[in-house]
Amino acid sequence: MFTGIVAAVGRVTQLERRGGDLRLSVACPDLDMSDVQLGDSIATQGVCLTVVARGEQSYTADVSLESVERSTLGRLRLGQRLNLEKAMLATTRFGGHIVSGHVDGIGEIVECSPLGRAVNYRVRVADELLRYIAEKGSVTVDGISLTVNGLYADGFLLTIVPHTLAMTTLNDWRPGTAVNIEVDVLARYLERLLQAATPAADTRITPEFLAQHGYMKRT
Description:
Elements: E1 8-18, E2 21-27, E3 41-44, E4 47-55, E5 58-63, H1 65-70, E6 81-86, E7 105-115, E8 118-124, H2 127-130, E9 138-141, E10 144-152, E11 155-160, H3 162-167, E12 178-183, H4 185-197, H5 207-212
Antiparallel strand pairs: 1-2, 1-6, 2-5, 3-4, 3-6, 4-5, 7-8, 7-12, 8-11, 9-10, 9-12, 10-11
């Protein structure tokens, strides 16, 4: 489990194709590796990976075929920067939101525009992901816990402050950049519960559906 608060930025040092899988090595001089053991989890560009080898300033992990196909890890390049976060502890300050490291799909940066000292990013996602994203709700993009500042028919808007720009790979985003998207896990579980309650009915979440099941008042 993670919080979406990036601890350090690393770089890809090795990519080894193994059948359909991938072995990935990352240099992480700014990540404290002193308490990392083999088998521990590190969120790497938003994907939960298991450490299979480690050094004082590096680690290696295997990327499954599922993760290769569902995330951007299959498109990595040598030297590419990556957002990193170690798995949270029970005593960790919870600064972001609940992040599983299980990427739901890939989005695309379609627009970048300055807003004062901040930057607005418009992100395009498929309808099957957009349905879980709410204005002022949380979304994880490339492992970063972010607030949704607006919704569009084909995506959502992010407004990124200077600190987040400086501490993550967000400055690398350009129109056309592919990014990993993990929706809020609470939205997924809510939909599943509602589906189980009415298995034979239309299971789309609509205002009428929520009102019928007591989640909002009828108008």
